[in-house]
Amino acid sequence: MTQSVRRIVLSAAGWTVLAALAGPASAATPPPTAKPAGEPDITFAGQDDDARGSAPTNPFAAGEQAVYRKDAVPGCVELSDGTKRAGSIYTTRAKRLKIFNLKRNIYEFVPVPACKRIEGVVEWERLERQWRFKEAGNPEKVYTGRAYPVRMHAWRLTLRNDHEIVGHILGQPLYAFHDGNAERFILHKRDKGPLGAKLEDLVHIRRVVLGPQAYNEALEALKAPGAKAPGQDGKQAPGASQDGPRGPESE
To answer: Which residues, 6 or more positions from 111, have their beta carbon under 8 angstroms from its beta carbon?
Structure first.
């Protein structure tokens, strides 16, 4: 009995010594903490102060001057009917052209300023017949006698280092800003026209040439006798819309 009590006392004394050697719990080494994140590794061109928290610019304010975007490149949009649109070319702010590379089978993201030329490649085009169900509940379809044009596009991007990327772009806008107006064009994979239209009526983008030389040549062509300003030729460009006084800072 005495030996058992002595063992318990020694055991309690041992724990006391160990606790004293360990020191108070507050003196233990604190766990490592993560360092705060620094600046991002990638900064998009055109990501100005209004995108970082300051008061954004109102694109619809009367008399407001358009702020020139850093990622806007002077150039020219040439359509399949021969007309040209000159202006500062850009896409949606903080976005890049997303193209599916048909050769590598991957998506690639290309900034507009990195391009020297964007060319439309017609993979196929035809007049599609319009069909409708013969009657309700009957799976049989009949031809209505009407048709509409359909065209499948691919796009060839030629970069400034002459590297080429050929692939599909799924409905990404390009804007040509000139004289206070931003005209919109759509780079899409598939396009179709209204019933009764012909293939030549379905105007599409032939090429977009970037650079001051292409921009100046398009302006000279617009000043030529008989030339019509954008929106006065009776035809509308693919996905084109006149956005009024909107400037590049609005996208």
So the answer is: 44, 45, 71, 96, 97
174: how many CB neighbours lie within 10 A of its CB? 22
The answer to pTM > 0.70 is no
Tell me which residue of 174, 49, 25 sits closest to 113, measured CA to CA.
174
Measured between alpha carbons, how far is 53 from 71 in angstroms, rounded to an integer? 20
pLDDT category, 64, cuts 50, 70, 90?
Answer: very low
Burial 230-239 (b: 16+ CB within 10 A, else e): beeeeeebbb
The dihedral built from the CA positions of residue 10, 16, 19 and 23, taken in this order, carries a sign that is negative
Task: Return phi, psi of residue 204, to 5°.
Answer: -135, 170
The enclosing H or E element of 217 equals: helix 212-223
DSSP letter for 242, please: B
pLDDT score for 17: 54
CA 78 – CA 221 distance, rounded (Å): 12
First and final CA of the chain: distance in angstroms? 89
Query: CA distances (Å), 109 to each of 74, 157, 167, 221, in order?
Result: 20, 11, 12, 33
In the DSSP assignment, the letter for residue 219 is H
Q: How many CB atoms lie within 10 A of CB 118?
A: 24
